[in-house]
């Protein structure tokens, strides 16, 4: 669906916009949502022209299922303090929006100075809660995708491109 080359080009332009947005910050805390964002966050932080701290947060996932659980639990919280800090949440895919909604409310309650979201992929047609990432790499149709960090039952995270899963 999306080649490694297109992803790289898009990551570069997203990083440029993010760097411009947070220009002058003393530090940007980049919070990656595990595990799906690990490749994306690794690529994007290396393109950011800002002082960056990297932290991770893990929510309960789909398991090996393809349906959103809608009930989001925090499995691993971030390590650092974000009060009065600039924070960028990095997510792989915004689907129903429940995960991001939960994470944003949690982090917002800790009073960051600025809190924005960058998602590699967005499936707007699947949305159940009204939430939007400030920066989106690619809008995609309602397909189940893998690669570039994103899995199906834990496999295919290591593909360098995004592919759709074909169910036979
Ligand atoms: P949401 O809470 O429904 O928005 O789900 C978001 C999470 O579901 C993402 O962080 C992904 O981990 C996972 N997800 C959603 N769509 C896909 C997909 O097409 N392939 C793999 N994982 C997905
Ligand atoms: Mg995820």
What descriptors fit this protein?
Rossmann fold; binds inosinic acid; 168 residues; 6-stranded mixed beta sheet; 22% helix; alpha/beta; 8 strands
Looking at the structure, what is the overall shape? globular
Rounded radius of gyration (Å):
15 Å
Tally of individual domains: 1
**Quick one: CATH class?**
Alpha Beta
* Contiguous helical run count: 3
Secondary-structure-based class equals alpha/beta
Largest sheet: 6 strands, mixed
Runs in which pLDDT lies below 50 for 5 or more consecutive residues are none
Strand content: 25-35%
Write the H/E string, N to C. HEHEEEHEEEE
Annotated CATH architecture: 3-Layer(aba) Sandwich
Query: Distance between termini?
Result: 18 Å
The name CATH uses for the topology is Rossmann fold
Strand order of the largest sheet: 3-2-1-4-5-6
The molecules bound to the chains, other than polymers, are: inosinic acid, magnesium ion
Portion of residues within helices: 10-25%
What's the count of strands?
Answer: 8
- The whole-number mean of residue pLDDT values reads 95
């Amino acid at each position: 669906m999306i080649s490694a080359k297109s992803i790289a080009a898009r990551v570069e332009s997203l990083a440029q916009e993010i760097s411009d947005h947070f220009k002058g910050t003393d530090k940007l805390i980049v919070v990656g949502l595990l595990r799906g964002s690990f490749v994306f966050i690794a690529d994007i932080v290396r393109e950011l022209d800002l002082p960056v701290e990297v932290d991770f947060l893990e929510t309960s996932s789909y398991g090996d299922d393809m349906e959103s659980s809608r009930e989001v639990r925090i499995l691993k919280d971030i390590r650092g303090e974000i009060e009065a800090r600039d924070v960028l949440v990095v997510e792989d895919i915004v689907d129903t929006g429940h995960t991001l909604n939960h994470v944003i409310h949690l982090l917002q309650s800790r009073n960051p100075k600025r809190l924005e979201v960058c998602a590699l992929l967005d499936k707007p047609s699947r949305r159940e809660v009204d939430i939007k990432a400030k920066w989106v790499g690619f809008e995609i149709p309602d397909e189940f995708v893998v690669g570039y960090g994103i899995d199906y039952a834990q496999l295919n995270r290591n593909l360098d491109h995004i592919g759709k899963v074909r169910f036979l």
